[in-house]
Amino acid sequence: MVSKRKPPVSSKVVLVRCFFSAASLGFFASSVGWDLVPGEALAEGNAQRPKAYDKLAREITKTIRKTVELEESGASLSEIRKSGDPVKGYYRELLTKYDSDARVNGDESFISLKDTFQELGNFYRANGPNSRLTEDVRESVLSKLQSIDESLQ
């Protein structure tokens, strides 16, 4: 008889305990193995992004930027967690509504959002959930957030 095994608890613990919500979400993003191949619909240029996606993407970039800048200013761990906490809900919404939406998943902003979450996840997986971002990672994340904002205009 084959028993069904539950997923390891450690991944759930990382989602709950990670000091920066985006880090835990980035860990999840890298563990589900998102592929970064653009969708065909936007490549053809005839699909329109949903306005709700634009609003969600702006909220994600605003919240991550605020949290990264708060960390850079030397804020406490609890302040950083509190600032980044809304990203968890935004990330779930992004996955459930738009990961399979051809109008969105090939868009530059969506690909950059996934890259941002993956970069944060890779950093925190390698350095631990309580690590402060290095200057290189911080600049890379802020640069990606800027390109997302520009592509949403």
TrEMBL record:
Keyword Magnesium: yes or no? Answer: no
Query: Which cellular component terms (GO) are annotated to the entry?
Result: chloroplast thylakoid lumen; photosystem II
Question: One Pfam family for this entry, by name?
Answer: PSII_Pbs27
At the top level of its lineage, which domain of life is listed?
Eukaryota
**Keyword terms of this UniProt record:** Lipoprotein
GO BP field: photosystem II assembly; photosystem II repair
HAMAP family to which the protein is assigned, alphabetical: PSII_Psb27
Q: What's the protein called, per UniProt? A: Photosystem II lipoprotein Psb27
